[in-house]
Amino acid sequence: MQEYLEKQWAECMDDFSKEFSSVSYSLWLSPLQPLNIEEDNLILTVPNELAKSTLERPNYKDKILSIIKKRFNLSGFVLILDSLKEEYIKEYNLSHPSADEIIDINTIENKQITKQNPFNPRYTFENFVVGTTNQVIYAACRAVAEQPGKRFNPLFIYGGVGLGKTHLLHAIGNYIWEHKTQNLNIMYITCQDFCEDYLKAVKKTNKNDDMEEFHKKYRSADVLLIDDIQFIEKKKKTQEEFFHIFNTLYQSDKQIIITRDCQPKDIPTLTERLRSRLACGFIQDIQKPDFETRLLIIQKKIELEEYSYEPGLDYSLAERLADINIRELEGILKKIHFYAAMHGMKEANKEVMEEVLSSQGELNKKKSSSINEQTIIDVVSNYFNIPKDDLVGRKRNKEIVEPRQICIYLMWSLLTIPLATIGQTFNRDHTTIIHARDKIMEQVKTSPPTKKLVDDIITKIKNQ
């Protein structure tokens, strides 16, 4: 039986990896473990309450059930917390749960069980690598965790995919849970799940009762962490509901932390009053790691995962992986470790690294190795026929200001250097650099002529 269970489950996991996104698979599906088959149900264990509540949602449950039916020919499955596994085995009879129903073991008997920490234990402040590109947002998140509702409320974190936004949300949750779990109701949810909760409440037969339950759930939060707010775009009624929840929590000094891939002012489909509410707090970006931060991240991951690498490989990787995010970096580290193990090696070496990077297609190219600040200044200067001293100088006439802003934007987008360093190059403060970057970023999105001009300059830079 055990051999059959493991074999079929391995096939299920393969199906899950194809059916769900890599993030969903890594966070929610990969920790699932099969425990037993009882009657017509597969018994699965989950690590915590957050994973359990996530997998209970229809968008997960239906797909999981379909795959289990296909691989095991069973009609349902049951989720049990890891901490309750022994109690399930010894004390509970779950032989006849209703088909297709996820059963909460906490409701089977009126038994007091300690509530579990719902946050990913790997995502803590201690495991977050701090560098020049993320030190400001790290400090803000620590301040919020230590004094929720007192400082930086709301806290709005924005940045590209895989740069650590979700890690910071869970780190805040873990810190508050550890230090203030008796007093605070901490709620983490993705914006997509929030939208589904709202639609489900609207569609229910007894609409008033269900909306009351929906309101009670979210308005009772002492700390609300909501991931990927972009999913609320173009959903005016959902935005309206979130606006009222936001107001209720904010006016009660409850802490709100939100993540998104850009700042509120760059979300065109957001209602004006919700955009205004989101912008009333502390807004901070998180950028791609520079060389020093990449090196620290690689070293930290090697330490946490207990990978074995030959000396100097961490430096080589940090140099080669300048144009990827942290999540991609982690994937490459895992792959290098796997290749080394597959070849029977005790530690990965540069030959294995090259083999993995070559299999990653464009990743193996040192895209920005020949590009630096001076290269960009030279190309922009020649392109607009402006002296380099004027480009980085103090002149403010229009024919210089716009090329200067484009130059700032290109340094930010093509190089993994902090905004403070760009500011030093142009002898300007952090706010001025952000304004220049954001202005050109917006024009690239909305103005085809500007996009064409910027793309043309980028081509010339890369051909240097």
Report a brief summary of the structure.
It contains 21 helices and eight strands. It is α/β, with parallel strands linked by helices.
Architecture of the largest domain in CATH? Answer: 3-Layer(aba) Sandwich
- Unreliable segments (pLDDT under 50, ≥5 consecutive)? 92-114, 364-368
Distance, first to last CA: 63 Å
CATH superfamily of the largest domain: P-loop containing nucleotide triphosphate hydrolases
Question: Could you walk me through the main structural features you see in this protein, from its secondary elements to its overall organization?
Answer:
With 464 residues, the protein is of the alpha/beta class. Helix content is 55%, strand content 9%. The protein has helices at residues 2-19, 22-29, 49-55, 58-72, 85-91, 135-146, 165-180, 191-203, 207-219, 236-251, 272-278, 291-305, 313-320, 326-342, 350-359, 373-384, 388-391, 398-414, 419-426, 430-446, 448-462; strands at 33-38, 41-46, 76-81, 155-158, 186-190, 223-227, 255-260, 282-285. Strands 5-6-7-4-8 form a five-stranded parallel sheet, with helices on both faces. The chain has a three-stranded mixed sheet with strand order 1-2-3. It starts with a helix and ends with a helix.
